[in-house]
Amino acid sequence: MGLPKVGGGILKSWMGSNKNYFEGGHKFCVNDIPNESFITWTESGIKFFPSYLDDRQFSRSVTFAVIRNPFDWLVSYYYHYSGYFHKNSEHRGSFGCVDYHGFGNFNEFIDAYCDPLFKWHIPPLKNFIPSQLFDKNGKCRADFILLNEDLNETIDTVAQHFDFRLNHNTSRMKYNFMKPKREFIYNNELIDKVRLKCKRELELFGYDYKGWDESKVKLPYDGVCIDMTKVKYDIYNDKLVINDKLYKTHRVENNIHMNRTFWPQFHFQKAELLFSEKKYLMAKKEIDLVINMVIDNPDYLNKMTSLSEDELLLGIDIRGFHSPGTMTKDYLKLKTRIEEKINEEKKSNIFKIYIFLKKVFRRILRLR
Question: Can you state the percent helix, strand and coil of the chain, rounding each to 5?
Fold first, then answer.
């Protein structure tokens, strides 16, 4: 899920060659957020941000997002530049915010972002930085969250878990050398303004101007990913609700959450991919795993709704059934298609054996 200025470019270069990796792009989980400043889109007549939930592939996938320190995020937001061969696509600032608002310098940008009365070009990104992850019911649609600062280390664990091949030939420095270091552009006044404005994000993820402090993370964290599934955010009224029991520091050792979590969407997507490659027996293995764990498991729905806090922290979790692509009928339909192909192959193989034996028998008769 493509939050702006969090490392989406480097993720694409690392994992984009994998058939089961899909870049979600810059969208929201609602479909009525207006686009006024992004020239590339406005010239094409796109007046509203698209919704992840309207993307069929999204609903069939394990979804994740990347979060970044707000102090660094704002620097990257301001200094972003995009320009192509025709001038109408050129814009400064993320989604063209610098040109749209006419900011003369970074101080003006921060003053506007932190001013509660200033109408931002994309209001939800000013209200709450990860607002793109929440649907109209306030539910976070990202299955897990990675930290931008740790991507070099954590991406290997994620890749191993989801069978990704990584291309580490691209250095992150290639993407960052054009932006000034934050200590050269923040003064004490700007720091205080951002601390007040982004208080929720800083406290939730354990950030401060000095950096990231794992001991201050307020959500379940296993050394690789943060779980935001118990956080609710009202994107229309800017209201954040957090389960009180989870709003304290948690740490799960040895990446146990990532390694012990069962992701139905991942196995479903893998089965679809194997099916498209005509590897039907391997596809059946994946879809049977999903059905045995989910559909034929009478305790599944209970587990989904009544996990104790201790169980959540241990990573004894089964994800799924939160989007159209993970409904029972989709699993069963794919299973039927796979079994039909396997039966066709069996019949074809039997017929091939019959023809082969027939030819052998004829040769034997001729030799006699």
Answer: 50, 10, 40
Question: What is the phi/psi pair of residue 188, to 5°?
Answer: -60, -35
What single-letter DSSP state applies at residue 69? -
For residue 90, the model assigns a pLDDT of 56
Tell me the backbone φ, ψ of residue 248, rounded to 5 degrees: -160, 165
Angle between helices 106-114 and 188-197 (to 10 degrees): 30
> Under 8 Å CB-to-CB from 152, ≥6 apart: which residues?
172
Residues 6+ apart with CB under 8 A from 243: 230, 231
Alpha-carbon distance of 166 to 247, in angstroms, equals 34
* Nearest C-alpha neighbor of 309 from the set 251, 246, 256, 248: 246
Query: Which pTM was predicted?
Result: 0.73
Give the CA angle between residues 323, 328, 332 to the nearest 5°.
130
Lowest-confidence pick of 41-45, 143-147, 322-326: 322-326
**Do residues 200 and 128 lie in contact, with contact meaning Cβ atoms separated by under 8 Å?**
yes
For residues 146-170, average pLDDT: 82
What stretches of 115-150 show up as alpha helix (H) in DSSP? 123-127
* H-helix segments, the chain: 8-15, 39-42, 56-59, 70-79, 97-101, 106-114, 123-127, 151-161, 173-176, 188-197, 199-205, 256-260, 264-276, 280-290, 300-305, 309-313, 328-367
Q: Distance between CA atoms of 163 and 293, rounded to whole angstroms?
A: 20
Q: What are residue 144's phi and psi, to 5 degrees?
A: -155, 165
Q: What is the CA radius of gyration of the chain?
A: 25
As a dihedral over the C-alpha atoms of residue 35, residue 39, residue 40, residue 45, rounded to 10 degrees, the angle is: 60
